[in-house]
Amino acid sequence: MTEKKTIFIRVKDVEKVYSKKNLLGQEQRQVAVDGVTLDIYKGETLGLVGESGSGKSTLAKLILGLESPTAGVIDYTGLTEVDLKNQSLQIIYQAPFSALNPYLSALDIVKEPLYALPKEEATARARYLLERVGITGNDVNKRPKSFSGGQRQRIGIARAVASRPQFVVCDEPTSALDVSIQARILDLLSDLQEEFNLSYLFISHDLTVVEHFSDRIAVLYKGKLVELAPAKELFKSPQHPYTSYLLTANLPLNPAQARQQLAAIQTYIQDFELTAEFDWVEVAPAHFVRRNRV
Ligand SMILES: Nc1ncnc2c1ncn2[C@@H]1O[C@H](COP(=O)(O)OP(=O)(O)O)[C@@H](O)[C@H]1O
Ligand SMILES: [Mg+2]
């Protein structure tokens, strides 16, 4: 991959606190995203990893403007006001079935975001996109329930790119699919990225997926960014104990690896509390790690 350095979206000190009432009626604060700063470059795929509940989807919603941050700012430096009005930011969800209107045909689902176009043009574009993702012929008139999980995800993808977005969040787009289908969906996303010059924020808890798909990877832990690096570099030389933990967490282990993992987890536990005061250290070019300031 060539270096892609035009800043597209700047996320600066962004925080999202949800408050919920507990059973006793007391207000409880849930810090879902805690002071995240990062830039997204034009045309890149930024992988976002972290375990369930680490704040990945919340961060994505903040970037898409579906939620507002309780602190911090998001600058769409690479986008004009017109771009923002024209659905330039889109999302592909994990569970394609619940994301698709069950009463509409595939064709109408993909046409829906194209309401501003003349009807014939919208139909032609929707047909093209459906064909592009492999839904052809009379199948375009079928409703979501007639399709397999992989096909539904393809329809969701066609819909997401219909309005010619510049930035697409893929929120665990293959997690609900069979392994055999995952690779083909990833290939499709990769082809569409090239065809439409898309920037992706690619969310996954599965590091093996993001490794091949991402230019850079951001690691989120308890709502905080702990490491950010070019994908290969992160795998070769993880710096934060939480990243090492994620890397080793689902590998088949030989005894040496098992010892290494144990050591990683021990360090991880020592570092369990991320202090409020920290340094964001550039350990290698474009490779940053959060270090507790002691
Ligand atoms: N609408 C909401 N109201 C209250 N808490 C929420 C809401 N959305 C997310 N959270 C909480 O914020 C944290 C991060 O959630 P989420 O961003 O969905 O994580 P992830 O996508 O990494 O699994 C979780 O503890 C979750 O329970
Ligand atoms: Mg999520």
Topology:
Layout: E1 7-21, E2 27-41, E3 45-49, H1 56-64, E4 71-75, H2 81-85, E5 89-92, H3 96-99, H4 106-111, H5 119-132, H6 149-162, E6 167-171, H7 179-196, E7 199-204, H8 207-213, E8 216-221, E9 224-230, H9 231-236, H10 241-249, H11 255-270, E10 278-284, E11 287-292
Parallel strand pairs: 3-7, 3-8, 5-6, 6-7
Antiparallel strand pairs: 1-2, 1-4, 8-9, 9-11, 10-11
Helix pairs in contact: 5-6, 6-7, 10-11
The protein binds adenosine-5'-diphosphate and magnesium ion.
Written description of the protein model:
- By secondary structure, this protein is an alpha/beta fold.
- The chain folds into two domains: 7-88 and 166-239 and 275-292, 3-Layer(aba) Sandwich (Rossmann fold); 98-163, no CATH class.
- It is built from eleven helices and eleven strands.
- The chain has helices at residues 56-64, 81-85, 96-99, 106-111, 119-132, 149-162, 179-196, 207-213, 231-236, 241-249, 255-270, and strands at residues 7-21, 27-41, 45-49, 71-75, 89-92, 167-171, 199-204, 216-221, 224-230, 278-284, 287-292.
- The strands form two sheets. It has an eight-stranded mixed beta sheet, sandwiched between helices. Strands 2-1-4 form a three-stranded antiparallel beta sheet.
- Strand 1 (7-21) and strand 2 (27-41) form a beta hairpin.
- The chain binds adenosine-5'-diphosphate (ADP) and magnesium ion.
- Magnesium ion (MG) binds at residues 56-57, 171.
